[in-house]
Design brief:
alpha/beta, six-stranded mixed beta sheet, four-stranded mixed beta sheet, 18 strands, about 25% helix, about 20% strand, elongated
Amino acid sequence: MLYAELLGDFFRLTGELQRRSAAFLAHHFQIHPTHAAPPARSERFHPCFFRREPPGIALIFVPELLAVIALFLRVQPPQKRFPMPLDSLPDAVHFGNVHAHPNDQEASTGPRSFRFHAMQPWPTCSDYTGSVGMPTNRIKTRRRAARNAATRAPAAGGWRERKDGALRILEASALARIPWLIHGFSTRPGGVSDLAGEKVLNLGFARWDRKENVLENRRRFQSAIDARDMMLCGLSQIHSDVVHVFEARPAVPCRGDASATNRADLLLAVQTADCVPILFVDSKNRTVAAVHAGWRGTLGRIVTKTIGKMQMQFGTKPADLLAAIGPSIGGCCYEVGTEVAAEFRSQFPNASEWFDELRTGDEPNPLQWLNMSPPGHQPAPKNVLLDLRKANRAQLLEAGLLPQNISVSDLCTACRRDLLFSYRKDAGTTGRLMSVIGLRA
């Protein structure tokens, strides 16, 4: 390493060399004899062209070379070194004490010295990279377990299935025990709509389906849950955090993604094909709500805002609420970009629990040269898996709901395409599921 004493000797030697006169002057290079005309072709570049021996040239580079060699041989480290933070230009005296640490003054590893004559082993980890999330066997095992849970029987884990002909309707057992409550989560089979040669129960208006087919499917669905005389109150869903409270029958569908009411003749409904449907019931105040939560709604805390609306309008207490989170795309299949992970990370301190590996795309990559891409043209970071059901359940618990009052379906729309619709897996051309809740007259 370089130290102050040797560095001072080197600077003094450099100054003396700069003060010397130039070794090559104009009169040192004289040609004899002087020709009035250019020499003949035969004399050009001849070895005898220079008739006089050139003067001797001082070998000034020899002491310079010796000084550099002595600089590295005379290594005598000082007794004490002081760490230098990375907020100024490096000093040769303390160059061995520079640590790649966010706060170098508090580095726990202590000063490290790298000498040319005593090579030390490299550390086992790099301080500046931190812990970069990479797929491991443990993560793969967790993904496999999530996929296995997503393919369970529809009526497993506090859920039951109601059949009416070819229709199969899912119900949460905790909500089904309330006699004055009507609710249900639709499935794929049992309809009249033709999708790729299959008769399906599409409950959303789409370009590929006829309007009369959708109306017939809705009639069959309402008849199966014993809600023939109730008005179906849907929403013009826009992936927002807008909540509507219905005190009367709406004339036209409202723009938003959640609704609540205490009227007995209204059947609140949300449509999904991967997003999370959530149904609420306040058993003491006889109030219900339906929520559509995509990743934008989840990021906007739409379930928390719905509970707040119910508190303001109907005096609902979170501890009295029952919630049912219906079938949706699971954490085994729902891939999102790292920019989505970054937004969740900025809003929720526990966001890492909802991702298989929380990567925001800003992690340092010390081995970028391995991909053979020029600077500024690095490949996009890989997507991460987001569990929307887990995220919304965490928000419900934070809002004050009791864990035993929350029912979560493990069915994944992407894994169970035989039973459910998935916008992602079906490449956009798919039907719509419907989740409804209402009060009996």
